Amino acid sequence: MNKxxxxxxxxxxxxxxxxxxxxxxxxxxxxxxxxxxxxxxxKCIKPKDRVPKPPDLFTPLACLEAVVNxxxxxxxxxESFVNVNPTNPNNIVATSNTNSNSIFRAYxxxxxxxxxxxxxxxxxxxxxxxxxxxxxxxxxxVYLNSAVTQVNVILSTDGGATFSAPVTAGxxxxxxxxxxxxxxxxxxxxxxxxxMVARGAPVTGLGAWGPFNAQQAIPSATGSxxxxxxxxGPNGGKVIVTYQxxxxxxGPATIFAxxxxxxxGAGGFGPRITVSTTNVGGFDFIPAQNExxxxxxxxxxxxxxGGPFNNRIYLVYxxxxxxxxxxxxxxxxxxxxxxxxxxxxxxxNDDATTRSQFLPYVTLDPTSGxxxxxxxxxRNDNGVPGPGGTNMIPNDDAEYFGTFTTDGGATxxxxxxxxGGFSNATASGNGIDYGDYVGLxxxxxxxxxxxxxNANCDGTNPNGTLxxxxxxxxxxxxxxxxxxxxxxxxxxxxxxxxxxxxxxxxxxATVTAxxxxxxxxxFTxxxxxxxxxxxxxxxxxxxxxxxxxxxxxxxxPRPTPAPRx
Length: 565
Known about the structure:
The chain is mainly beta. The chain is built from 1 helix and 39 strands.
């Protein structure tokens, strides 16, 4: 049933330095102030920027970590992905949402020493770009078109410099696409009118892929805000789709999964499996995401490395210790039987506070099988301006943290702060705060981490301190040996699947994907990469586009945030 969603809002270099030691999150550019959408989607109207707030009396004295400004561009860049080319690790591509109908894209061919910045799907994309790089060197990018009526996929075979014309994977009432690659396959899933669907396509070489198989309905998959992963096996590998339901309100909710046991073969997705409950609902407001809210953001990877944890599935999600207490944690469950049963949860964040961790993302290093997780973290915001935050409000300023596991998710390395200082989402004027996800990549013993940040500790953000977001990066090197077992298993009971996934007789009649006629996937580069990480970018004088207001469900309760000083 459709409900009226309405919200009124107030009006360089990327050097990956070596350290010392799920559903749509759609934003429609439209002139209207409201849009009818299925209840429970995160579909919204892209917000106007809020009236800039006066700068706080908070100026970081120095970066607390060795961060690098990736985007160095005016306006907000958020909901980012960073991908490293497995055929050439010096080739790195960063993408994100922008304040316009385009996907921001920057690529480097020298390990981040210089960058070419611009956009892809220029003037044709709403948002929600997510990318995956396969072993052939194909970089697939999925996004929602500007009307939020199509799930489109574009392909780069030259390291992110250019992209193909879009291929439409789905159309209609679509939401939060995700993308994953396997050994000879690429898969996309999304929310279609309130339920999860998916399509896969074979990949046989560089630039040789498709067509997509028929769109597959997923049994009992009402829900959204999840992800997709491809594991080992024939026909391009087994596939798992995750999601949460219900998708409205502030919780509780349940995280589910369905598995396609034969990949691109004749069988389809099996029955729904219960993975875990969570107190984080589809629109759960916390101080650090006061405008946008968060969901459980269940993410998944499937080990197909052939190593000691081959065929293990890792699922990360956000939990709230008590419903509506804003003490959110990052938990992980694993499965070794194709998702049939799941382990007890293990807490990934190692802080001793009752503050918020949110927007987790899990990635797997195909060279080692090491699994890493990154997340936004308010552990250090105690409301003391300067060392304890940007203002006198605790738990509303976030830093970015990362960690990893070398023993299959049983224990986690001590969490490492990667960001250079506190960021504040309200100060960004972004309307959707940090967004809905942060996509990371791992390869060759390193977590490539990148996130939305307005701390401006290095002085390179052309918007200034505590204003619009730029994309910042700082890698996390994986040390050898087992991490210190600081987290312990949660006292909650082990979640056991309610059903065993079996292949169904879903038809796989081949449908030839036809590229759209518009050449929207061409990019508009800014071919002026800087040579050092300390160069200060010069803001352009181009006026920022004025997006229209975002709408969120007024019927869902939300806490009243404390007034900002």
